[in-house]
Design brief:
Distance between the termini: 35 Å
Helix content: 25-40%
Order of helices and strands: HEHEHHHHEEHEEHHHHHHEEEHEE
Number of helices: 14
Keywords: Methyltransferase, Restriction system, S-adenosyl-L-methionine, Transferase
Number of strands: 11
Radius of gyration: 23 Å
Family: Belongs to the N(4)/N(6)-methyltransferase family. N(4) subfamily.
CATH architecture of the largest domain: 3-Layer(aba) Sandwich
Catalytic activity: a 2'-deoxycytidine in DNA + S-adenosyl-L-methionine = an N(4)-methyl-2'-deoxycytidine in DNA + S-adenosyl-L-homocysteine + H(+)
Strand order of the largest sheet: 5-2-1-6-7-11-10
Mean pLDDT: 87
Organism: Aeriscardovia aeriphila
Largest sheet: 7 strands, mixed
Enzyme class: transferase
Length: 440
């Protein structure tokens, strides 16, 4: 019998909205992030000094909250921009560094202002149809700011870049009225926007940079302990270099084809982490649940037995990485997954969606096999995840995670319904939690 979720609320305070006005947590908007409130609730039982492992770090909510709670946190993230961003959030900025950054910001503003009337070919990122993102005046101001920011380095550069990211996204033609980021619509058969572009003057953009930088600096007053760190890597590979953890707390990508690379590409292009669409597609293909760009095309006809690039090419000594055949043979949810895939194949875009769902759960099963050895006996894991639907077929990710945990010998497995999601009346967010028994 299915649980009654009729009274479940949307609980915006458990989403990224709960972080907006909360110091460093609010530096940038990442829609898929959960809130510091949720992280605190899930780590509240841990003793000071306990070790937390976050394998899908995202924008760093878990390690930052762990720092604030006196916990030690190790984290992994495959996206190089998010690795940079989270480590910048976790850093300590001395009074001298803050003073130097303020002087640098003033210098950047002065230099950019002096170029307002000049015809200087500042660099702009190779974003496809960049004119749909920013009007010419705004783009010129952003390019000038970034050119002079790039003169600086180290922590000063990091703070300037965070402020720039806030301005860059805040002056764009992006809307967030859906689950994912999108551009405002264009007139049919033209490249002209079907809306009034933001009336930014050149000086408006510079003033906004000054304000955003000021807000970023105010969040630095409370120093951190510098015990948390984020390492770049694929969470389908071994965690042999990580210290044993008392708890795993994370929110993996959902099984809903939402691409984190797509969501973050403006940041990644402007800061030099991406230089082409092909590079973005390759990174998305390596990511769990990624299908943006050419990654979608690669799913047609996909199966683990014919895809040598299915597994990460990051080889490590220690924990053995199973072959695709071994993953298939050991998958605890194989029969339920096969039935769901059969239904999904019959629906719209089934030739892409069925392989996508198949690959997603093999990726996650491989992840659970890799992370199990680094969680201490007696430790806990908690995965914040949502269910999905494809052509009317539910993909109960929360239940299947629980079955994977059970197959690994975990006990006290329970699924807490956290909130109703905005996108569909059948979709919810859950915390799937389990305990790793102590050694006999």
């Amino acid at each position: 019998m299915l649980p009654d979720r009729s009274q479940t609320q949307q609980r915006a305070d458990l989403t990224f909205r709960g972080n907006v006005h909360s110091g460093r947590h609010g530096w940038l908007r990442l829609t898929t992030a959960y809130s510091l409130t949720l992280a605190r609730e899930r780590m509240a039982h841990l003793a000071p000094g306990s070790s937390v492992l976050e394998p899908f770090a995202g924008s760093g909510t878990t390690p930052l909250v762990a720092e604030e709670m006196g916990l030690h946190c190790q984290a992994r993230e495959i996206n190089p921009f998010l690795v940079w961003f989270t480590n910048a959030k976790l850093d300590y900025y001395s009074p001298q560094t803050r003073s130097e950054a303020q002087q640098a910001a003033s210098q950047v503003l002065s230099q950019a202002s002096a170029c307002e009337k000049a015809d200087i070919p500042f660099w702009t990122p190779p974003i496809h149809h960049i004119e749909r993102w920013w009007d010419p005046v705004t783009l010129k101001a952003l390019a000038a700011l970034k050119s002079f920011i790039n003169i600086h380095s180290g922590q000063v550069r990091n703070l300037l870049d965070v402020a720039f990211c806030r301005v860059m996204m805040g002056t764009s033609n992006v809307v967030f009225n859906h689950q994912s980021m999108s551009l405002k619509k264009l007139e049919a058969d033209t490249d002209q926007p079907a809306f009034e572009l933001p009336a930014n003057t050149y000086q408006d953009v510079l003033t906004r940079f000054q304000l955003e930088f000021g807000e970023v600096v105010t969040t630095l007053a409370e120093p951190l302990r510098l015990t948390a760190s984020v390492h770049q890597g694929d969470s389908k590979t071994p965690f042999d270099a990580f210290e044993p953890a008392d708890m795993v707390l994370t929110s993996p990508p959902y099984c809903n084809r939402m691409s984190y690379i797509r969501e973050l590409r403006p940041y990644m292009y402007w800061l030099g982490f991406l230089t082409s669409g092909e590079q973005a597609s390759d990174l998305d293909w390596k990511s769990t649940g990624g299908t943006w760009g050419k990654a979608s095309t690669r799913l047609r006809g996909w199966s683990p037995s014919i895809s040598p690039d299915y597994q990460s090419d990051d080889s490590q000594d220690g924990t053995p990485v199973p072959t695709p055949a071994e993953l298939e043979a050991s998958l605890p949810i194989a029969s339920e997954l096969a039935a769901a895939l059969e239904n999904i194949e019959k629906g719209k875009s089934g030739d892409i969606l069925a392989p996508y769902v198949h690959k997603y759960f093999l990726d996650m099963w491989q992840h659970f096999l890799m992370i199990d050895p680094v969680l201490k006996a007696g430790g806990d894991m908690c995965y914040v995840i949502g269910n999905s639907t494809f052509s009317g077929t539910e993909v109960p990710t929360h239940r299947w995670y629980a079955q994977m945990m059970e197959a690994l010998g975990y006990t006290n497995i329970h699924i807490d319904t956290l909130r109703k999601r905005n996108s569909n009346k059948a979709l919810y967010e859950f915390a799937v939690c389990a305990h790793k028994p102590s050694a006999a």
